[in-house]
Amino acid sequence: xxxxxxxxxxxxxxxxxxxxxxxxxxxxxxxxxxxxxxxxxxxxxxxxxxxxxxxxxxxxxxxxxxxxxxxxxxxxxxxxxxxxxxxxxxxxxxxxxxxxxxxxxxxxxxxxxxxxxxxxxxxxxxxxxxxxxxxxxxxxxxxxxxxxxxxxxxxxxxxxxxxxxxxxxxxxxxxxxxxxxxxxxxxxxxxxxxxxxxxxxxxxxxxxxxxxxxxxxxxxxxxxxxxxxxxxxxxxxxxxxxxxxxxxxxxxxxxxxxxxxxxxxxxxxxxxxxxxxxxxxxxxxxxxxxxxxxxxxxxxxxxxxxxxxxxxxxxxxxxxxxxxxxxxxxxxxxxxxxxxxxxxxxxxxxxxxxxxxxxxxxxxx
Length: 365
Ligand code: NAD
Ligand code: GLY
What we know:
Elements: E1 6-12, E2 15-22, H1 27-35, E3 39-45, H2 49-59, E4 65-71, H3 80-92, E5 100-105, H4 107-119, E6 125-130, H5 133-139, E7 144-149, E8 152-159, E9 164-168, H6 177-194, H7 196-210, H8 214-234, H9 249-259, H10 266-283, H11 289-301, H12 313-320, E10 333-338, E11 341-345, H13 350-359
Helix pairs in contact: 1-2, 3-4, 5-6, 5-8, 6-7, 6-8, 6-10, 7-8, 9-10, 9-12, 10-11, 10-13, 12-13
Nicotinamide-adenine-dinucleotide (NAD) is lined by residues 45, 47-48, 51, 73, 75, 78, 105-109, 111, 131-132, 134-135, 138-139, 142, 144, 154, 171, 174-175, 179, 182, 266.
């Protein structure tokens, strides 16, 4: 077993915690300090469980009591029923306030287990073991947890920082290609909003990332987590800069909503959404046409869609109005000042947005 290749810390006002990134890591040594002689509840799902549950159980041989909660697989189960059933199991199995909840899975499992940990007895310790690229570069870091409401995604939730994020890139070997692409979408997001050098680097290394070359994928995850850690340290509760992490998401959420959750993957919708946000940035005279093209090409090379399936701009606009960033009826968008620099703004012309929604849907070019 090899030791972690990368270690970085996330520091927020209330806590500081490590992110460990490596390949075929010794999970027991990573977890023992936080779990020894404690009650531990693993939350996972039916897809991840046969792949990694045994490895995790073996690593937890020194705990006082071990419970496992297995969720069905899918975004459609990220709901109040699943959440309450996790709490039911914690209650009926006699877990106390000193217990630890471990999320083993992708962002859906992480968000739900985190929300259960945030609310069970007003908050218990929580560890993230993310097993999708999306969860490794984004959702497992920074403490956003929650579930969907029938009327909106992630509408119920809490901020709950984990005590540890354990990223073993070996778990990516079993990830379906489409899910890998969805994760790369969030990787590109960091480069587009904050790091032009990283964007250049991604253009060169994309094929190695998609081939899961260990050194390249570890460095990719590390660079993304560095960005996320820095942004979260500056703005844990999304009062400002953290909103930039939603680049492409207002457009993307409209797509997910239009298609019905689960049909387009979150990362796929964000891929097309980033092209839309970049197209508007270009129309406003901020982003160079050549940089818009570079972004489109990189997203396409990652196996992601670059056109929205919503062919009526007015409908897209209506769906975008449901976004959490809407203030006083105005849609605030994350746009690019240039490649590698983003802002949150409501200062764009409505006509330009409508034109973007038209040309990026493939309905008119
Ligand atoms: P997911 O959790 O649904 O996982 C994708 C699929 O991969 C699922 O079928 C899952 O069972 C499977 N899977 C997971 N790990 C696997 C592995 N190693 N091998 C084989 N299959 C595996 O989706 P996701 O993309 O990880 O996460 C999306 C969710 O994350 C959304 O609900 C989104 O709202 C949320 N999210 C949260 C944040 C945050 O900050 N909390 C950020 C971004 C996204
Ligand atoms: N994924 C967006 C955030 O964590 O703020």
